[in-house]
Structures are given as C-alpha cells and as structure tokens.
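Table S2 (text version). Query chain:
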Amino acid sequence: LETKTNKCFRSFKSIQGCQRWKPVKLDKSLISIHFQGEVQEATLSASFKTTTSGDVICEVSTEKPENDRWSLSRRTPQTILPVVQSMIAELALSVKASKLSSTEDMGFMVQRITCAMGRIDSNVKELIQIKQRFPTLLVKRNPKDESLLVSVDFIVRQNMLHASFKLTKTYPYTPVDVCLYSKAGKADMNIIKRQLLKNAKPGFGYMFRACDVIMACLQIPSD
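Corresponding structure-token output:
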C-alpha cells in the first residue's frame, strides 16, 4: 500500500499545475469549478447543482471568484482583448444551452470546457506572437456578423500591403477568409495568393504562418 501511495503522489506532483481548472466549492448538492486561461480575462466558472429529483442544473459565470489568485495568468494586451471577450462569451452561451441529464454528464462538460479553454489559449498566444512581430495588428468586430476582423499592415521597402483575417467562432478548425489589399508598391498579389495556398495550411497557428508567407513574398526583389 505504501508503494502504491508513493507512486500516486509522484504522478500527482508531475501533473500539478498543468490543468487550468480547480474546484471552488464542493458539497452534496453543489460543485463549482473555476477555469482559468493563460490571460486573466480568459476566465469562466461553472456550477453544477443537483436537485432532489436527480436533475443537474449548470450555471455559468465569466466573473473571477473572490480572493482567487492564479499566478500563471497575465493581462491580455488591449488590442487582443476583444478576441478573448468574444470567445469566452461564446463558450458561456454554449455551456448554458447544454442540458445535463445526470451527474455523469458533469465530467464530460468539464472536459468540453477544458478543451475550449485550451483553444482560446492557443488563439491568444498566436495573436500575441503576431502583435510582437507586427505592431500594426488591429482587431475589430465585423458589423455584419459575429466574427472578428484581424488586420495586419506589412511594410517592406516601397511595398505596403494590408491583410485582413476573418476570425470566426470555429477558428482554427475551419479555413479562414483572407482579404489582401495593396496600399502602395507593386506587390504581385497572384504570387502571394498562390504561396498562401501552398504553404499556409489551415489549423492551429494559421494566421501566424500566413503572415510569415506574406512577409517573405514582399521581401523578394521585384524586377
């Protein structure tokens, strides 16, 4: 028994701090779990209440619990804040709309929220990397639908190109609409489009790869 206990303790220590959630309250009729992303604004709390009839009610909050300190979290850059707020709001609505038929469904819901928070973290990291390399990055809401427009201006010698990525709630699992507009210079748009199709494949990190491809194309000397 002592050997098994030590083995379990070592296993726990190896994953301690890796998960992005922790229980806030546990009792017979209420379980509250707080999920925290890598930035402070990526926060969500889910409370599971069991009724006397055995039904499960799930309530969601995007407010941080009182006296909560998650040392690994950092503040979201102001430029990227709309993306985080939009994704967290979308996740909260999705969780609220879900129906849990029994207590067994709570585990699946925790897994689902954990995966969604991981996707949000990945998108935020990507946008921060783009912002660090291309300070011209801007994010604004698309008035026509619920998507976000991520725009970047590329300036290489006499060439100035504007790229706009339509970021939907399904990113990065579906292709991204990209609009290119030449503001100055003689950049070959056809070559850039072909290179994007060839080298920037859809998936996690697509926008960052696309920015790299565009920048590389603009650095090729024109005839």
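Notes on Table S2: The two ends are 76 Å apart (CA to CA). The helical segments are 2-15, 81-96, 104-133, 189-199, 206-218.
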